[in-house]
Amino acid sequence: MALKLQPGDEALWGTYEYGSMKVAFEQRAAREGIVNKVLDLPITSMSNDEIVAAYKKAITPRTKVILVSHIVYLTGQVLPVREICDMAHERGVEVIVDGAHSFAHLADKIPDLHCDYYGASLHKWMLAPLGTGILYIKKENIEKVWPLFGDGGYASDSIHKFAHIGTYPAYLQLALAEAIRFNQTIGLERKEARLRYIKNYWVDRLIDVPNIVVHTPREAHRSCAISTVGIKGQDPADVTNALYDKYKIFTVPPGYPGAVRICPNIYTIPYELDAFVAAMKELAAA
User: How far apart are CA 6 and CA 22, in angstroms?
Assistant: First the structure.
């Protein structure tokens, strides 16, 4: 994370950001004396306007950058990143968007988000191999950002200066090209619609079941494929273990209180979702 930040400069982000991203800012604080202002917001129960207002209220004259996830990894909630970016830019603050769970998941184009920086891994929703990713930097910002690995072969204002990692495994590029073709064949708008349908398929069948709690907002603009669900009085780890041990259904407890994260993809079929719904109903009735 090579932004030029000085001692006392503030970075603003939420407790719900991904651990590796938080650690990057915490390391800058430990090494260089920047200040991390951390928001602890009940975002699942807040409207988009309330979320934007909370970020606005937290900005001070020392705030230089905001980190915000497009889709929160804990719950699958889609955050209003464009509105946050526009609000921040009015106050001279740059915005980094973590798109790990939104790229090739939502049909939004990166420039339309109005962010300054955007990064994503591609093994999740792009279905590319592990070790592939994307970095977007507004052209006017490239020159002022240092690459983590020095490369004298490119001009300081060239995005290619960030690509130097030593010997690059060609098979990743070849496989990534196939992943791009696969996604383009489907079309991102169709893919997003299918992913939202799959999520709604199981949520609609569990939302009114006694003892079951769906934590992620259900509105179309606030969630897509990912959602979180829990059973009252049961530890998420116990639910996760029971789903796998008894029904061979793999899920994870992401760390959100009372929640198991459900991440079906385009290859998930209704029969599999029916099995999950039946398993959750049985566990909730126990």
Answer: 18
Neighbours of 162 (CB within 10 A): 18
pTM of whole model > 0.85?
yes
Fold of 188-285: Aspartate Aminotransferase, domain 1 (3.90.1150)
pLDDT per residue as tens digits for the range 147-167: 888 777 888 889 989 888 778
Nearest alpha carbon to residue 239 among 256, 260, 254: 260
Question: What are the sequence ranges of the domains in the chain?
Answer: 10-172, 188-285
10-172: CATH topology: Aspartate Aminotransferase; domain 2 (3.40.640)
Q: DSSP per residue over the chain, as a string?
A: ------TT-EEEEETTS-HHHHHHHHHHHHHH--EEEEE---GGGS-HHHHHHHHHHH--TTEEEEEEESB-TTT-PBP-HHHHHHHHHTTT-EEEEE-TTTBTTB---GGGGT-SEEEEESSSSS-PPTT-EEEEE-GGGGGGS--SS--TTS-TT-GGGG---SS--HHHHHHHHHHHHHHHHH-HHHHHHHHHHHHHHHHHHHTTSTTEEE-S--STTT-SS-EEEEETTS-HHHHHHHHHHHH----B--SSTT-EEE---TT--HHHHHHHHHHHHHHHH-
pLDDT at position 148: 81
- Residue 39: strand pairing partners: 14
Max Cα-Cα span within the chain = 64
196's tokens: 């939202």
